[in-house]
């Protein structure tokens, strides 16, 4: 109420001693109030502003002349003084000492035109401090105090008649629709009567900071050196709305004081595109005169007579939004203040008819304005103005006077005999006035009132009500006579009061619960997201893979990571996925999933960047958990590369040892090492699958990725830079370069042997490399790394699909399939696949086909060139090495052929492993039984592991699956470790303790060779005595498995002629000499 303080003049208005009504009760016949032997007049506290005088005089005239009471009038400057006066305080206008105390007896009994809402705290304090005498609030006087923007009716009429502009609605001022400034005075004409900007709220940092926060209008403010926010000042006096800053087409908006209502008007002008030039009048006289002289919009409050002569028209803005105002949003109307009437606590017992009169006493805003306008337009006093109004509105005030059959408001006609409310008094017998019950309201009928049931859309919970209350926001009522309203259900809202139904939420949206009060309470359903920026406009789209979208999800809440409803309703990118903040719904899937931390768009783990998260900044390398500075990583590569080349050369001498039909301990160790490398390669390839593995297996597989030449963890990017092509080229060239090194060494040693003295080389024990041994060395190298070769060559073909429809390489997710870089990688991969994968496999197939023939022809150098393929297996299953190659390549092909079908990948891997296990179990191909047992156990473990892949929507216990997969990995390592340990023991201690052969064969062999030889010789001698026909007949009686054993190899071993494989031979030399190559 501070903007009204100029009105609070503590003066007594001029009143007339004459009666208003000729038939009014004369002064001598009027009565006093009597209490405990004391007699005194009714005290009427009049609030000292025009509307207060108008309302007070009307009540006082009726109290004197119609109810017959003596009345004394006391005037106070504000509503607060009335509170204390009615409570009985002796000096209610003294703000330092109100004169309150115990045993107070009030001499003030009623007051009108009180602004309770502006002093709610003081009212509560009085009620608490003086409960015995605290006044009673009889409620609203019939109108509400409001403050808003106005224009004169003459200006409105001119605009409407000339161009059809109403100018009474805020949208009429939007420059998007109209040009309202043409009807108003140019702002610069009145600058002499305006305050400079620095004397107004334009320099109030708190209010201007709120304006900036709500509107984002940075151009409309200036930031001071100390951080304060001031409104931008134009021409020293004005603030211009955004829509008219670039030109002079602004209309003048005038307010008083330091800028009454300015904080809300600035927001309204910005939000509603109103071409406003806001300014504050220099003095009160300027504020009151400018709207009368010029065409302006101006700030005003009612009830007040200042501008009544202009018949001002309010500009209608959106109704008050309490929640919005609470957060500083002022685009809706300010909240109106109820104008109330009060009586003292003892008035009900002293003069109940006055209480009834005061209860019924209601004025409309038009009535108050009429009285004030009469006072302004003539020299009459407020008594005379009130009297004239009473004579002109007899039907209104008659209803305020108590009458048994003339029911006041809140009451209605009631037939006491029939015990029911009636709607007619044609038969007044047994009629009385009873308070309207709950579910009813009092309505006038001629000069009385009746009680009617509340209509649909309204309710009344209490009795004695003037009207039914409209159903509040979020509720409705479709029945009559209701004492409550029904709440809107799910998917419905009601943003207006007094409705008989609820409005459905827009398509695709719903509400979080019941009682929704605005379309803003509607939100997109779970798993959908609003892609429009406005909170009241909706276009809900399915979130799809990679997003978690709870109720009410929107693009803003996704990118900002917060929601009005709380953290549980914040949409987020799931772990394992990422998107760009500027296009948050374009989701990329990360491989592996732990590289993307999820949350808001753009979040990568470990310092990674790009889409998807796959690369470190230049100068950094991925360590397995985060991007780290390269440091001296290049030194390791510079040293490691020649060391690896040296080791490769040394391998020539290491692997080219004598091969026997019976595996030596050294050969068994090499077999165990090869199986271990192959197993680790398989585990690494499993990790490359698009299958969702358990976390522990993902971690283990990632650590083994170096076995498929994934050397990123070794800091390869420190050498190649961030280019995926160079990284791939570096890995892909490892096998070709290694093969080239071995070939170069062979060529070099051949040249030396011709250039240098052979004897010198012999003395140095340096012999020229042999071509077949070089081929054997390269074959071992390629065979051991065949799974890695296949996986590496097929990497450019392993494209997986992102949720957004794009495709990336599994190994290099930030290389998109179809890009130029992918094309280059594809070319390298196809070349590697053609030469070193398919070419090598064809080479091995050719060797497996020709080796028996070469052996029979004593072409031992050709046989020795393929020892890498056949040297580890028994003679009758020399071809088993091809199965090893097919299995390793098949795992990688499963990823290529079924990239988008993880379950099919698992199925293919299971089938390949099962076929390999079947053939392995059937043939026992390895020369060393310990290797056969270990390989069989290893295959079973791999089968168990493959089937630990987590299938989508599977009810499997993830914790159990995670733990079980860890157990299987440990089991695989244990199998390999045990197999390797036994081979090493046989190698180191075999000859010394005589246990080597027993360990490799998993049985005690002993010195049985002689006994077996004697038994076989005797058996042969016996067989020679039997006729062939008789022998054939006897063999026909044998068990089929025994015959198959003889046919499948045992008999051939005796004769040295593998007929099952080679067919009939003329001699026993098909593999002659192969027992020692």
Automatic annotation (TrEMBL):
<keyword id="KW-0732">Signal</keyword>
<feature type="transmembrane region" description="Helical">
    <location>
        <begin position="728"/>
        <end position="748"/>
    </location>
</feature>
<keyword id="KW-1133">Transmembrane helix</keyword>
<feature type="signal peptide">
    <location>
        <begin position="1"/>
        <end position="17"/>
    </location>
</feature>
<feature type="transmembrane region" description="Helical">
    <location>
        <begin position="904"/>
        <end position="922"/>
    </location>
</feature>
<feature type="transmembrane region" description="Helical">
    <location>
        <begin position="966"/>
        <end position="989"/>
    </location>
</feature>
<feature type="transmembrane region" description="Helical">
    <location>
        <begin position="667"/>
        <end position="689"/>
    </location>
</feature>
<feature type="domain" description="Tyrosine-protein kinase ephrin type A/B receptor-like">
    <location>
        <begin position="484"/>
        <end position="522"/>
    </location>
</feature>
<keyword id="KW-0812">Transmembrane</keyword>
<dbReference type="Pfam" id="PF07699">
    <property type="entry name" value="Ephrin_rec_like"/>
</dbReference>
<protein>
    <recommendedName>
        <fullName>Tyrosine-protein kinase ephrin type A/B receptor-like domain-containing protein</fullName>
    </recommendedName>
</protein>
<feature type="transmembrane region" description="Helical">
    <location>
        <begin position="769"/>
        <end position="794"/>
    </location>
</feature>
<feature type="transmembrane region" description="Helical">
    <location>
        <begin position="929"/>
        <end position="946"/>
    </location>
</feature>
<dbReference type="InterPro" id="IPR009030">
    <property type="entry name" value="Growth_fac_rcpt_cys_sf"/>
</dbReference>
<feature type="transmembrane region" description="Helical">
    <location>
        <begin position="877"/>
        <end position="898"/>
    </location>
</feature>
<keyword id="KW-0472">Membrane</keyword>
<dbReference type="InterPro" id="IPR011641">
    <property type="entry name" value="Tyr-kin_ephrin_A/B_rcpt-like"/>
</dbReference>
<feature type="transmembrane region" description="Helical">
    <location>
        <begin position="634"/>
        <end position="655"/>
    </location>
</feature>
<feature type="transmembrane region" description="Helical">
    <location>
        <begin position="824"/>
        <end position="849"/>
    </location>
</feature>
């Amino acid at each position: 109420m501070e903007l009204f303080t100029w009105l609070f003049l503590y003066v007594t208005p001029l009143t007339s001693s004459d009666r208003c009504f000729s038939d009014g009760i004369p002064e001598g016949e009027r009565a006093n109030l009597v209490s405990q032997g004391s007699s005194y007049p009714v005290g009427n506290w009049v609030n000292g502003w025009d509307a207060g005088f108008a309302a007070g005089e009307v009540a006082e005239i009726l109290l004197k002349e119609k109810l017959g009471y003596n009345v004394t009038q006391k005037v106070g400057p504000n509503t607060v003084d009335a509170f204390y006066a009615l409570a009985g305080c002796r000096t209610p206008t003294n703000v330092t000492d109100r004169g309150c105390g115990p045993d107070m007896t009030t001499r003030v009994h009623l007051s009108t035109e009180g602004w309770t809402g502006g002093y709610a705290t003081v009212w509560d304090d009085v009620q608490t401090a003086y409960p015995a005498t605290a006044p009673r609030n009889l409620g609203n006087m019939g109108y509400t105090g409001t403050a808003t923007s106005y224009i004169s009716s003459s200006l409105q009429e001119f605009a409407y008649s000339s161009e059809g502009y109403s100018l009474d609605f805020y949208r009429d001022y939007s420059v998007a629709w109209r040009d309202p400034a043409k009807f108003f005075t140019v702002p610069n004409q009145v600058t002499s009567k305006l305050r400079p900007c620095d004397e107004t709220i334009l320099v109030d940092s708190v209010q201007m900071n709120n304006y900036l926060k709500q509107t984002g209008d940075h151009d409309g403010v200036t930031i001071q050196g100390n951080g304060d926010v001031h409104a931008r000042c134009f021409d020293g006096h004005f603030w211009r709305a955004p829509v008219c800053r670039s030109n002079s087409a602004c209309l003048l908006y005038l307010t008083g004081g330091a800028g009454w209502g300015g904080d809300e008007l600035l927001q309204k002008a910005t939000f509603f595109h109103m071409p406003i030039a806001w300014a504050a009048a220099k003095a009160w006289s300027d504020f009151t005169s400018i709207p009368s002289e010029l065409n302006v919009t101006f700030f005003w409050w009612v009830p007040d007579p200042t501008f009544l002569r202009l018949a001002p028209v309010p500009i209608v803005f959106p109704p008050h939004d309490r929640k919005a105002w609470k957060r500083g949003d002022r685009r809706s109307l300010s909240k109106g203040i109820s104008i109330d009437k009060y009586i003292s606590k003892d008035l009900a017992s002293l003069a109940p008819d006055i209480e009834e009169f005061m209860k019924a006493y209601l004025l409309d805003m038009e009535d108050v304005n009429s009285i004030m306008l009469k006072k302004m337009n003539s020299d009459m006093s407020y008594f005379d103005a009130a009297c004239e109004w009473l004579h002109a509105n007899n039907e209104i005030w008659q209803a305020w006077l108590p009458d048994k059959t003339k029911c006041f408001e809140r009451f209605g006609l009631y037939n006491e005999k029939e015990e029911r409310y009636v709607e007619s008094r044609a038969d007044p017998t047994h009629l009385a006035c009873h308070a309207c019950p709950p579910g009813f309201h009092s309505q006038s009928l001629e000069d009385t009132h009746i009680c009617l049931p509340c209509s649909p859309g309204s309710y009344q919970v209490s009795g004695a009500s003037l009207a039914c209350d409209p159903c509040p926001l979020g509720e409705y009522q479709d029945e009559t006579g209701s004492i409550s309203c029904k709440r809107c259900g799910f998917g419905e809202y009601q943003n207006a009061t007094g409705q008989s139904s609820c409005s459905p939420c827009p398509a695709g949206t719903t509400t979080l619960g019941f009682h929704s009060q605005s379309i803003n309470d509607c939100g997109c359903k779970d798993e959908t997201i609003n892609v429009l920026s406005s909170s009241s406009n909706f276009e809900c789209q399915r979130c799809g893979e990679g997003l978690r979208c709870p109720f009410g999800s929107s693009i803003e809440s996704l990118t900002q990571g917060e929601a009005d409803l709380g953290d549980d309703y914040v949409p987020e990118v799931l772990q394992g996925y990422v998107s760009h903040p500027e296009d948050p719904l374009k989701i990329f899937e990360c491989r592996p999933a732990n590289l993307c931390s999820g949350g808001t768009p753009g979040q990568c783990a470990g310092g990674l960047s790009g889409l998807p998260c796959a690369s470190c900044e230049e100068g950094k390398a991925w360590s397995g958990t985060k991007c780290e500075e390269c440091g001296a990583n290049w030194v390791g590569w510079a040293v490691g590369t020649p060391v690896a080349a040296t080791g490769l050369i040394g391998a020539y001498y290491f692997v080219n040892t004598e091969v026997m039909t019976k595996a030596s301990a050294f050969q068994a160790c090499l077999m165990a090492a090869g199986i271990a490398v192959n197993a680790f390669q398989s585990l690494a390839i499993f990790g490359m699958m698009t299958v969702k593995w358990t976390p522990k297996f993902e971690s283990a597989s990632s650590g083994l990725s170096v076995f498929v030449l994934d050397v990123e963890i070794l800091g390869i990017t420190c050498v190649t830079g961030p280019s995926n092509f160079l990284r791939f080229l570096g890995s892909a060239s490892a096998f070709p370069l290694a093969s080239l090194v071995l070939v170069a060494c062979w060529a070099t040693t051949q040249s030396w042997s011709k250039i240098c003295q052979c004897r010198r080389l012999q003395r140095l024990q340096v012999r020229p490399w042999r071509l077949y041994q070089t081929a054997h060395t390269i074959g071992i190298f390629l065979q051991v790394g065949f799974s890695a070769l296949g996986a590496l060559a097929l990497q450019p073909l392993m494209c997986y699909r992102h949720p957004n429809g794009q495709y990336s390489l599994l190994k290099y997710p930030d290389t998109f399939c179809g890009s130029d870089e992918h094309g280059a990688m594809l070319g390298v991969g196809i070349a590697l696949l053609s030469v070193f994968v398919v070419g090598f496999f064809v080479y091995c197939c050719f060797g497996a086909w020709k080796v028996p023939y070469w052996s029979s022809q004593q072409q031992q150098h050709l046989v020795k060139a393929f020892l890498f393929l056949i040297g580890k297996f028994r003679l009758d299953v020399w071809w088993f090495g091809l199965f090893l190659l097919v299995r390793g390549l098949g795992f990688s092909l499963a990823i290529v052929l079924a990239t988008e079908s993880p379950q099919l990948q698992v199925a293919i891997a299971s089938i390949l492993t099962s076929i390999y296990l079947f053939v392995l179990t059937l043939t026992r191909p390895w020369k060393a039984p310990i290797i056969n047992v270990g390989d069989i156990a290893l295959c079973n473990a791999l089968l168990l592991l493959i089937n630990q892949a987590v299938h989508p929507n599977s009810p499997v216990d993830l914790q159990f699956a995670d733990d079980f997969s860890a157990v299987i990995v440990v089991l695989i390592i244990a199998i390999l470790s045990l197999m390797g340990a036994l081979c090493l023991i046989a190698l180191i201690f075999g000859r010394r303790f005589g246990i080597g052969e027993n360990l490799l064969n998993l049985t005690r062999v002993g010195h049985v060779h002689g006994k077996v030889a004697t038994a076989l010789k005797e058996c042969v001698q016996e067989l020679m005595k039997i006729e062939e026909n008789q022998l054939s007949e006897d063999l026909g009686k044998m068990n089929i498995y025994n015959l198959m054993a003889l046919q499948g190899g045992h008999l051939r071993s005796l004769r040295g002629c593998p007929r099952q494989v080679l067919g009939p031979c003329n001699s026993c030399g098909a593999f002659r000499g192969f027992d020692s190559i």
